[in-house]
Specification:
- The protein contains ten helices and ten strands.
- The protein has a six-stranded mixed β-sheet with strand order 6-7-8-3-9-10, sandwiched between helices.
- Helix 3 (about 95-100) runs parallel beside helix 6 and helix 5 (about 120-140) crosses helix 6.
- With about 260 residues, the protein is of the alpha/beta class.
- Helices cover about 40% and strands about 25% of the residues.
- The structure holds adenosine-5'-triphosphate.
- The site of adenosine-5'-triphosphate has 11 residues, from strand 2 and helix 1.
């Protein structure tokens, strides 16, 4: 099992944003985390990637206990995440945004950089090659010299995915990859996610667009009020009365989700 989550909890004061959550993420699969607004999905991602420290519980990744580790440590261990809204460096080119992420696998230190040692030059070449490879993979290599933060949302989302892939993850956490995209773009993100999995990267995603979740996910984990209320295949989840009830409780028909 690539990721094992046990009894994971996070409280903000008296609010239990994530409460006693258990689930496993098998290698080579797409696991979707769904639930109504405020269910705890983003908080759960932040716990997995080390942005928040859990109040209780454990996270085991690739056989190693990573509970409470910081993001710079989890990324080195092989967990990368993207955010609901893109976090690109203002004023930097597309290529430089992705090259910055390559530093995670860099072998040279500050002194190598100052002295321009062979090790530093080798790292620089490797970062450039890797960045171009990822930009081509996500389909935005032609935008390499553009200022990333001025590009349309869809391109920025692709660049964020290239950044995450440039850290050479085993597990990629995608926070609402299709939010704010057209139906056609959503479909194209679905294809990209399948290609990422075909490369051998396991994917875990939070997404409100149910058509995408149902098409892509091998496994769905459903949260409501911070608790895991169901886990199963898309077919199991579609017909689960507790899940239907949770979404109806949002007053949004079968949503809080979108189709
Ligand atoms: N840093 C924080 N401090 C206090 N409360 C927080 C914090 N982050 C999240 N919460 C609260 O925790 C609960 C879960 O929020 P979270 O953002 O994880 O839900 P979500 O399922 O991702 O929601 P959405 O689908 O709307 O993005 C909410 O009640 C939210 O207000």
């Amino acid at each position: 099992m690539l990721l094992e989550v046990r009894g994971l909890s996070k409280a903000f004061g008296g609010l239990h944003a994530v409460q006693d959550v258990d689930f496993d993420v098998p290698e080579g699969c797409v696991t979707a985390i769904i639930g109504p607004n405020g269910a705890g999905k983003s908080t759960l991602f932040n716990l997995l990637a080390g942005f928040y420290r859990p109040t209780a519980g454990t996270v085991t990744f690739d056989g190693k206990d990573i509970t409470g580790m910081q993001p710079h440590q989890t990324v080195r261990d092989g967990i990368a995440r993207t955010f609901q809204t893109t976090h690109l460096f203002d004023g930097a080119s597309v290529l430089d945004n992705v090259r910055a992420a390559c530093v995670v696998r860099s072998r040279s230190n500050a002194l190598d950089a100052v002295l321009h040692t062979p090790r530093f030059r080798k790292d620089e070449r490797r970062s450039l090659d890797r960045s171009m490879h990822e930009l081509e993979f996500v389909g935005v290599a032609h935008l390499r010299d553009e200022i990333a933060s001025t590009l349309p949302q869809e391109a920025q989302k692709r660049i964020s995915i290239a950044q995450a892939l440039a850290t050479e993850p085993k597990l990629l956490l995608l926070d609402e990859p299709a939010a704010g995209t057209t139906d056609e773009e959503t479909e194209s993100f679905g294809t990209l996610i399948r290609e990422i999995v075909a490369r051998g990267v396991t994917v875990c995603l939070v997404e409100h667009k149910m058509s995408m979740v149902m098409n892509l996910a091998d496994q769905i984990v459903v949260l409501d009020h911070g608790q895991r209320i169901a886990v199963g295949t898309p077919d199991d989840i579609k017909s689960n009365p507790q899940v239907i009830e949770a979404y109806l409780g949002t007053g949004a028909g079968t949503t809080g989700a979108t189709t």
